[in-house]
Amino acid sequence: MFEQYKLPYSYDALEPVIDAETMETHHSKHHATYTATLNTLAEKAGVDDVEITKLLANLSDISDETLRNGIRNNGGGYYNHNLYFKIMSPNGGGEPTGALKEKMDATFGSYEEFKEKITALATGQFGSGWAWMSVTPSGDLVLSNSGNQDNPISLGTGNTPIFALDVWEHAYYLKYKNLRAAYVKEFFNVVDWDAVAALYEARK
Do 127 and 157 have their domain in common? Predict the structure, then answer.
């Protein structure tokens, strides 16, 4: 059974970047629904005991197309939001440090260049979706975006996300309306780079 991620901070903790109503709706409604629906579909498909990354990486093993598509969407929503909520903190912001900073600088040129590249992917994603920084099997860093609840795992890239930026409208519309770029700019003020660094160390 898949358990909904429990936030280590209150719904109002990320204000003024993300307002309490958005966080509560996002977590207690959207994410709760993805989790519940995933559990229902995974049980029907007989894969409710499979770890989520393995499940998403092997969707083709689910023969029933309806169940496969449902698990792709809801399993993606479950996994993606787990990561998104995990890498935010009321004490976030600033810049990465240590080995992650060194790797990001070597890969993207600088933290500011990383921000420019990931911002372009986030704001340029047509419709609902995500922007990602992932670790490749060889330990390199790559940036990408994806639509709906897809992610680098479900898309079969073999890469493991360590940074997730949600650009579905429900992530920002109550506060920022149609100004996605304004939300993306402020998002970096709540990124917990220690959490991202821990994920990088675990996967590199």
Answer: yes
